[in-house]
Amino acid sequence: MKSLPYFCRGEVIRGFGRGSKELGIPTANFPDSVVDNLPADIGTGIYYGWACVGNGDVYKMVMSIGWNPYYKNTKKSMETHVIHTFKEDFYGEILSVVMVGYIRPERSYTSLEALIAAINNDIEEAKAQLELPEPLKLRDDNFFTSAPSPPSALTPSSASTSQTILNGH
Fold first, then answer.
1. Helix (H) or strand (E) holding 126
2. 43, 3 in Cβ contact below 8 A?
């Protein structure tokens, strides 16, 4: 995938409400404007990388891009699980991510337990991959220190910019 590493940011929106409730694995969802602008070579599947909420710290993340076959979604989504425990939800905040690598294609599962086990395996794989020297360098990329203000503080013209992919920062 020649587009990796891939830099993007956007406002965190409400998703399907399953990550925390059904899976015990909270996710932050990007708006359609970010999902629809992914390059063609970033296909559906599970990715790992780095994430930052607002101007906060940078944490490891794992992301699902696709239609979530287990749930038979009809709408493509980008769901980011930031590998950190946050005290509260951060809907409306700007999420900045660097997708560093690919773990596997998306697939369906025969049970909720099998899906949860697969996600936990993905999290462990992401943690391990992000300790390697090349991916570790991206944690300190200036992309994270140039994060924009929250959407409420943006002017109308910059608000739309904050929700688009910003590769090559």
1. helix 112-129
2. no
Q: Is the peptide bond before 5 cis (omega within 30 degrees of 0)?
A: yes
Helix (H, G, I), strand (E, B) or coil at 101: strand
110-159 pLDDT tens trace: 998 999 999 999 999 999 999 999 999 999 999 998 856 555 444 333 33
Cβ burial of 85 (10 Å; 0-12, 13-18, 19+) is: exposed
On whether the CB atoms of residues 30 and 80 are closer than 8 A, the answer is yes
What's residue 151's pLDDT? 54
SS3 breakdown of the chain: % helix, strand, coil, rounded to 5? 25, 25, 45
Which helix H or strand E contains 127, and what residues bound it? Answer: helix 112-129
Phi and psi at 60, nearest 5°, equal -65, 150
More confident residue, 98 or 22: 98
Mean pLDDT across the chain: 85
**Distance between alpha carbon 124 and the CA centroid of its chain, in Å?**
16
Give catalytic residue positions: 79
What are the pLDDT digits (tens) for 56-106?
999 999 999 998 766 666 678 999 999 999 999 999 999 999 999 999 999
| Confidence at residue 160, expressed as pLDDT on a 0 to 100 scale | 38
**Nearest alpha-carbon partner for 34 in 91, 76, 84:** 76
